[in-house]
Amino acid sequence: MTPPPRAAHGTPDAAPSDASAAAPVRPSAVTVDSAVLAEARRLAPEAVALRRALHGGPELGLDLPGTQRLILDALDGLGLEIRTGRALSSVTATLAGAADGPTILLRADMDALPVAEDTGLPFASRTPGLMHACGHDAHMAMLVGAARLLAGRRAALAGRVVFMFQPGEEGEHGARHMIEEGVLEASGVRAGAAFALHVHPNMPAGALRLRPGPQMAASDRFRVLVRGRGGHASAPQTTCDPVPVACEIVLALQTAVTRGVAADDSAVLSVTRLTAGTASGVIPDSAELAGTLRTLAEPTRQRLHAAIARVARGVAAAHAATAEVTVTPGYPVTVNDAEFTDLVLRAGTSVLGAEAVDVLPAPLMTAEDFSYVIRAVPGALAFLGVCPPDVEPHEAPSLHSSRMVLDEDALAAGIACEAAVALAFLAGRGPEPVR
Ligand code: NI
């Protein structure tokens, strides 16, 4: 196993900051499996058409009947064993190879966002206020392409591939629901590995980026209700004013992060809402603040949960007020398995070429519920660059933007990469170079 390189804390494209950083895990030179890429390119027009159909009809949350229908239609005739979800409109499709072997799971998320599209695309969302602004339309189209490619190679496959189409990634814990409904055992044996791609418009089109260890953050919400005692604003001494208490809590929470988290660990705490009062002459009874916590290590996460409660209650108590603290856990840290990450880097290099594949130098503080899957089985999530042509990656509208667009030419790279990872894993090549 290769130890994870130290994070260079900077932009995703930043180079490791100094020579003391461990050498990045660069795949050794391998020959390009041009057949996989050529097949993916042949499937690309179909993938683009499916992506556009999905893009036009975005749906939210765990119940996506129109999206599910499009996926079922697209998988029809491939000879896959199909199951749909009970508590959510998921699709689980299993491809059985001609010979026995392990199972690998490939995942695409299906849901859109409550964003009013502003791209001007001819195939833009037909549903007012909803948009595939996180690229999940592309994820589904690529996974269908990979299913088609791998189904065409069934005779040469030893093992099974589970294609996991998952609703409810945007805050609804869809992956956890699918695990509860048995997606990890869908093939009859537990998946030995899992892989997912997430498009990224701020990375060059066709680039594959991932890192061993933490790749994305845990994301939790918190809320603090400060209770004091209101009264006339001219006589604060007769009240217990919750407003300055809430302000002190905001500052003290920042100190809890900077003094409580090691320099080579990462945590972000943002208070994003602060509300109190109704009139300039009235000291209110209470004040409320809320925000998000992002962390990259479970112990740090737990420590900061405790710190939020302790700091809020302690500051409030110092001023004879009280604080009610609620921390709502979101998705866990997305941790890529080091050995499987190496396989992805090698398989990706074999189809896309070394110049397209890189170790992501630092984790992103966004979150992903694929974390539930690769917490249960070894696996990895990788970013696929989809920066549109004629735009600098750092200037492209980001994921979740109403103007997010992607380079559809990169879909072939994604299909090739997903297929290559599955082929490499099923061939039992493990961490060995893919030749
Ligand atoms: Ni997403």
CATH superfamily of the largest domain: Zn peptidases
Question: What would CATH call the class of the largest domain?
Answer: Alpha Beta
DSSP, total strands:
16
Cofactors, ions, other ligands: nickel (II) ion
CATH architecture of the largest domain: 3-Layer(aba) Sandwich
**Biggest sheet statistics:** 8 strands, mixed
Strand order of the biggest β-sheet = 1-2-4-3-5-16-6-15
Which consecutive residue ranges, at least 5 long each, have pLDDT under 50?
1-32, 429-435
Strand proportion, as a percent range, falls in 15-25%
CATH topology-level name of the largest domain: Aminopeptidase
- The total of helices stands at 9
How widely separated are the two ends?
Answer: 20 Å
In total, the number of domains comes to 2
Q: Summarize the helix and strand pattern as letters.
A: HHEEEHEHEEEEEHEEEHEEHEHEH
| Residues in helices, as a percent range | 25-40%
**Class from secondary-structure proportions:** alpha/beta
Mean pLDDT: 92
Radius of gyration: 24 Å
Summarize, please.
The protein is an alpha/beta fold.
Fold blueprint:
Elements: H1 34-56, H2 65-75, E1 81-84, E2 91-96, E3 99-109, H3 136-151, E4 158-166, H4 174-180, E5 193-200, E6 208-210, E7 213-216, E8 218-227, E9 231-232, H5 242-260, E10 267-276, E11 282-283, E12 286-295, H6 298-318, E13 322-328, E14 334-336, H7 338-352, E15 357-359, H8 370-376, E16 379-385, H9 411-426
Parallel strand pairs: 3-4, 3-5, 5-16, 6-15
Antiparallel strand pairs: 1-2, 2-4, 6-16, 7-14, 8-12, 8-13, 9-11, 10-12
Helix pairs in contact: 1-3, 1-9, 3-9, 5-6, 7-9
The structure holds nickel (II) ion.
